[in-house]
Amino acid sequence: MDLQPASANGRPMVESLSASQLQEKLSRDEDVQVVDTRVPAAFAKGHVPGAENVPYPELAARIADVDWGEEIVFVCERGESSLQAARILESYEGIDEDTLVANLTDGYEGWDGDLETE
């Protein structure tokens, strides 16, 4: 029997994703929603292609306004604030229980793929 830890609402806890795993998903054009939790200035300097910017301090206020996908990966500089953001979203009652919520483990420090700039 494969048991996974569960959160208080019974959903699986936040998944961890490596940079290479995310790059592979993006290269296969999988429907992955990448959410960058850094401040807008850092986001503008370079971000994962197709990412949207929801700064961590604004997440709680904007959580109901974002159209969340079926697979969501949060990313930040080192994978710390993005993990907290993923935990917040994972516990949000407006998210389907089938939605995969993940954190990019090493953040941009582990990312060696292309970056988009604004």
Strand order of the largest sheet: 1-5-4-2-3
Count of individual domains: 1
Average pLDDT: 88
CATH third-level topology: Oxidized Rhodanese, domain 1
Low-confidence stretches: 1-9
CATH homologous superfamily heading: Rhodanese-like domain
CATH architecture, please? Answer: 3-Layer(aba) Sandwich
Rg from C-alpha positions? 14 Å
Strand content: 15-25%
Shape: globular
The helix fraction, in percent, is: 25-40%
Strand segment count: 5
The major sheet is characterized as:
5 strands, parallel
**Distance between the terminal alpha carbons, to the nearest Å?**
47 Å
Please trace the helix and strand order, writing H or E for each element.
Answer: EHEHEHEHE
Classify the secondary structure makeup into a structural class: alpha/beta
CATH class: Alpha Beta
Number of helices: 4
Note down, in words, how this protein is organized:
InterPro entries: GlpE_sulfurtransferase, Rhodanese-like_dom, Rhodanese-like_dom_sf, Thiosulphate_STrfase_CS. Residues 1-31 are annotated as: Disordered. It comes from Halorientalis brevis. It holds the Pfam family Rhodanese. This protein is α/β, with parallel strands linked by helices. It has one domain (15-110): Rhodanese-like domain (Oxidized Rhodanese, domain 1, 3-Layer(aba) Sandwich). The protein is 25% helix and 16% strand. It contains 4 helices and 5 strands. It has helices at residues 19-27, 40-45, 59-62, 81-91, and strands at residues 15-17, 33-36, 52-53, 71-75, 100-104. It has a 5-stranded parallel β-sheet with strand order 1-5-4-2-3. Strand 2, helix 2 (40-45) and strand 3 form a beta-alpha-beta unit.
